[in-house]
Amino acid sequence: MDSRLFIDARTFLGKVWKLTRPYWFSEERWRARGLLAAILALTLGLVYLAVLFNDWNRQFYNSLEQKNFADFKDLLLYFSFLAAIYITAAVYKIYLTQMLEMRWRVWLTREYVGEWLDKQVYYRMELVNQGTDNPDQRIAEDLRLFTDGTLNLSLGLLTSVVTLASFIAILWNISGPLVFMLGASEITIPGYMVWAAVLYAVVASVLTHTIGRPLIDLNFQKERREADFRFSMVRLREHAEGVALYRGEEPEQRGLLERFELIRANWWELMRYTKRLTYFTAGYTQIAIIFPFMVAAPRFFAGAITLGGLTQIASAFGEVQGALSWFVNTYATLAGWKASVERLLTFQSALQNAMRETKEAKGIRVAQAAAPALGAEHLDLALPGIDGRAGRIILADTSFRIEPGTRVLVTGPSGSGKSTLFRALAGIWPFGRGQVTVPAGARVLFLPQKPYLPIGTLRDAVSFPAPSGAFSDETIRKTLADCRLESFAGRLDEAGNWAMSMSGGEQQRLAIARALLNRPDWLFLDEATSALDEATEAHLYRLMREHLSQATLVSIAHRPAVAAFHDRRFELRPYAGRSMLVAA
Q1: Do 461 and 517 contact (CB within 8 A), yes or no?
Q2: 217 and 261 in one domain?
Q3: Residue 20 belongs to what domain range?
Q4: Strands (E), 126-280
Q5: Of 159-163, 192-196, 504-508, highest mean pLDDT
């Protein structure tokens, strides 16, 4: 059992090092190492000051016992000097630690956000259950807990080790030997206070781990359930209108309270085990105050040590016992830190798996070619399977070619795979086989049925995915007016959640304005005008034909009137439980 625990701990620490190492060897390494060196120097300085305070303690109480007023005054001045240095060092240790923690967190956040957004990894992870719930919480909260916990726990452990090395010799020398008779033999234990401190701390550490071990898993579940509850409320905000129209407040409330009940149940378990652990650690800490006096009292009353020596023994014992009790005193913090590390490890593993699958080009391959046409060869589209692999085929062995400048309409019954085909052409659908060929260097833009509107100014929303400032305000206002959004033309500097303040039709018109501004070579519309009346829809198609005359246009639509704006038509027809693409 013990060897297995040692192996598990060693494996876990190896994984922690894999999370930790990149920052300390990154482009930030010299600043990070410089800050860490300063923090370590301050930490060692504080331990040295504790040694000086321990010796001051002996001299001060001896001066009181001897009623030596001159020494008493000098020692008060000496204390003031040491205290001023200690306060300065303690303040700057915290200040520099917080600085290093934030620099580390900033670097990690940039790395994780970059990997999460790279090559649509975030989208692939949503499609497949990678065992990583709430990636937003892992980046925002777990990274904070990881950097904070790693620095503070490491520095705390270092402080304990240095303190132990500094005070164990002092305690050994001043405690003296313990002599007692065992039968007819005289037993002598040199430095017996050291052995008492070691025994006291070891027994407490074993009991602490036995009592508090369930806290590790409970903290892991706590973070997950808190994130699930928070995400459910955010999702309700995003879909407030739909819930209100359905009068769905009761089931939403029931669902929210059910998720909160999981938090309550987990919290109750945390309370129970924290209470048990606190009973033990609080009692352990209180007994540690009087324990050294109890053990050293016989020698004091026998006249073997002075009052100053007794207080120095008690102080040194407290330092040694405190250093040996690092595990006991930080167990609850360790449990929360380990939970955050485990969540980061699973998230990192999921990121790496998704990135590896993308690089290995498993499933549908997307290639760029010198040919100007876009096409697909032997394309099979599948739904996600239970195990994260491709499931049921919905479009089988499909090949087609779309020449530049043509306008193609894609039709078919709901559920036949039209939107999935667009996702495959966009290179974001991983389930299936075959190859999609895209013209090299072509600017491609896909407009989904529900546009994505980033939170920010209206200028940012209409320019997306181009950066803010890519188009002049005059051009944006004219384009909005062309798309019958005149009422928004004067609100470019207004910031807000536009997805909540614009109707579905207004959002779709904004998306068309976005296409007119970005002027893609290939424009794909997945029922991007379904929320508009026929007259407005026809107006926008005429706008696209006029302003994007050189672009290739591929539309998914159900209304027959849209066909008038297209040259060709592809139809997805159900056949034997799947669909087949027919050029109509």
Answers
A1: no
A2: yes
A3: 2-359
A4: 178-182, 185-189
A5: 504-508
